[in-house]
Amino acid sequence: MGKTFSEKVMGRNIGSDVVAGQIIQAQPAICMSHDNSAAISGTFRKLGVREVKHPERLAIVLDHCVPAAGPKYAQNHKTIRDFVAEQGILGFHDLNIGICHQVLPEQGYVIPGSLIVGSDSHTCTYGAFGAFSTGIGRSEAAVTWATGEIWLKVPETIRIEVTGELGAWVTAKDIALKLIGDNGADGGLYKALEFVGPIVDAMTIPSRMVLCNLAVEFGAKNGYTPADDKVEAWLKPRLSPERWEQAEFLASDPDAAYCETITMEVTGIGPQVACPHTVDNVSPVEEVAGRSVQQVFIGTCTNGRIEDFELALKILKGNQVAKGTRLLIGPASAEIYREMASNGMLIAFIDAGALIINPGCGPCLGAHEGVLADGEICLSTMNRNFKGRMGNPKGEIYLASPAVAAATALRGVITDPRAL
Amino acid sequence: MSEREIVRGKAWKYGDDINTDVIFPGKYTYTITDPAEMAAHAMEDLDPGFAKNVQPGDVIVAGKNFGCGSSREQAAFCLTANKVGAVVASSFSRIFFRNAINAGLPTIELPGIAERIEAHETVTIDLGKGTLTCKAGEFSFPPLPPEVIGIVEAGGLVAYTRQRLGCADES
Known about the structure:
The complex is a heterodimer of chains A (420) and B (171).
Chain A (H helix, E strand, L loop, with lengths): L4 H10 L8 E4 L3 E4 L3 H10 L11 E4 L9 H17 L4 E2 L6 H7 L8 E4 L13 E4 L2 H10 L2 E4 L3 E7 L8 H12 L8 E5 L1 H5 L2 H9 L8 E3 L4 H7 L5 H5 L14 E6 L6 E3 L7 E3 H4 L6 E5 H4 L2 H11 L9 E5 L3 H9 L2 H7 L3 E2 L20 E4 L15 E4 L2 H10 L9
Helix pairs in contact in A: 2-3, 2-5, 6-8, 13-16
Chain B lengths: L5 E8 L6 H4 L11 H6 L9 H4 L5 E4 L11 H7 L5 E4 L4 H10 L3 E3 L12 E5 L4 E4 L2 E4 L5 H8 L3 H8 L7
Helix pairs in contact in B: 4-5, 6-7
């Protein structure tokens, strides 16, 4: 019997054969954390060890509430900076860098074939680069810092074959929302997801990141898109030759055991919208078109990359955001922000009436920036529309692609971009 | 785990896909660390009466995918801070499941259980025997994997790791 991608990476990590269902003591190549690193450092100090076992395996990115929204957030950041200095952690990125899930691949932490954990649920994003990556909690991040190890169950794998032809304005986000809408937010519970097929092969790296990012909204442990020469072209310039040497492009064997196969024929599928308050409450955009919104947010670790803003500007460039609607633009990283500054995108958005916010998680967390008032509705490109997610349980959130978001900002009501 | 073996308390019933944002809102995740303060915000955006009225040993009963969404560990710790005895659900989101184990909070997976337990009825759970008793009868559940059970028995991951690393118990 052949092996799945996840079995191969986990087996490689511990240096022996593993099968789905087995529990292993993994030694993650990277343990990522963000603003929660202050809390993690507090737990770390309770463990009775003085030093992080492998400081070179930590990546800490300040992104969740940057710059600090108040004294408690400021103290939180300071605690992290002090801990990083004390422990000699080189993999620290302060608040000017961007969202962890964009920063980790950009800054060379993600190596194909490696096993990465992160104390953030969207850590599953790095499957787009051929890594096995999954979210963990804070206490276990502290223990990983202390011991270099964490227990992980080897997941069974669901194979998701995406075939057909994508229609106008239909993106990876729509495929993921359709998958979650059709199969439920627990459709992939505990499982590894493997997205395959001609549509996935043809996707850009940022689009594959969207699929893997949303794996957790399907309940999955990790997501994966087969690593190919696009991954090499994207990552190799960002890694030192020594680190690139460690890369191994692992793929499932043809006779690997899958627990389930889902075939998605996407021909004829239009843009999708997840309605309040769950990600699996999905409707085709035309069914919800016309509902009025007060805020539109394009950004986040799901859809805050250059191709997302390009798509939005196809609709917004030279036009104006509807009166009474606020459009927030959040680049996922400083690198993306810089490119938008040099290629004219920032100016195009400003001229359209958008507000550009700094790279970071921003409105997606509800801690600051872009909190909704009672009864307000936001359409966002983020990954969660849970009650209270944007800081107010009396607000409502719809999720969609950057194309639907831009069309909605233009009209002030949820709008099908195909109808413009 | 003998003194922790029997959980007995009132059932607080909730539905499917209860996410960690409603169990512990994101706006508090970097500003509230004190357990008593965390306890006061438990389930705030779902059931504002919960934190005021929950009693030690009470049991949360839910449908599928309990704890989905953000990895925030406070979703488990705000329940242990309220001395919740266990969470019983048809299924759990995996990160919440891990966090609960790490918090020493018993999680019991029993498909369809929410339909068998009435809101506010008293539920008794024998963690050693692996049985849950309610008005509708007695239900058996499988034990946690052996690799993991030690963490819950130690009272959570911090205590477990200290034992493993040979540190004295925290006072």
